[in-house]
Amino acid sequence: MLAGSTLFQRISKKSTAVRWGAKAVSPCVIAVMGIGGSVGTTHLCMMLANSMANGLKVRTAFVEYGVHDTGSACLHLAQETKSLSGDIHTFQYAGIDFYRCISEEELIKISAMKYEAVILDMKYGSKEVMTEFLRSDLKIVVAGMNLWQAGRLKAFLKNEKLPSSHWRCVTLGYDRKLAKKLEKEYGIRVGLIPAERNPFELSPDGFLELVKLTEM
Fold it and tell me: What span, in angstroms and rounded, lies between the C-alpha atoms of 130 and 211?
């Protein structure tokens, strides 16, 4: 484990406290918000959830927040998996509880279910999503690094004007020249998270990159 404080370490401490009979605590919430489609948001969420559930061994919820595409990766998993509630909106896979197309009211209920980590899979574009994004413990923006996807990131940066210290910007597909240009123009840092071919089979290096992502 890396030196310094990470969200992984905070969750581990909470988990230990709960197991030793301490008062229940609220889960650590990681909001992962995609700027546009096809940038790897859900894939990164699955990697993080796998790290929490099977790396840290803590109770983890994966939440599709708001309306998602009918062809989402979570829907495909749901159709292959015995669900928790008898439908395809709540199911379990690889030790992770999945919740599809969840509203704000439903998220409040999920957050009270003694999870130690909650991963929010979000898509930028509504006031409700931004409100939930801003109240999370760790805020991650996923952007594509090609010309048209970078344009969406520029619009986000101009519209929201969030202090760069309050959130992380990452990409799963890297154009270093374009990333450097954006970093210089907007005073941000764009981190590369290598996409594992199977998010439920993390390599040691992949797990280490996720730990780095959570450094506080």
Answer: 24
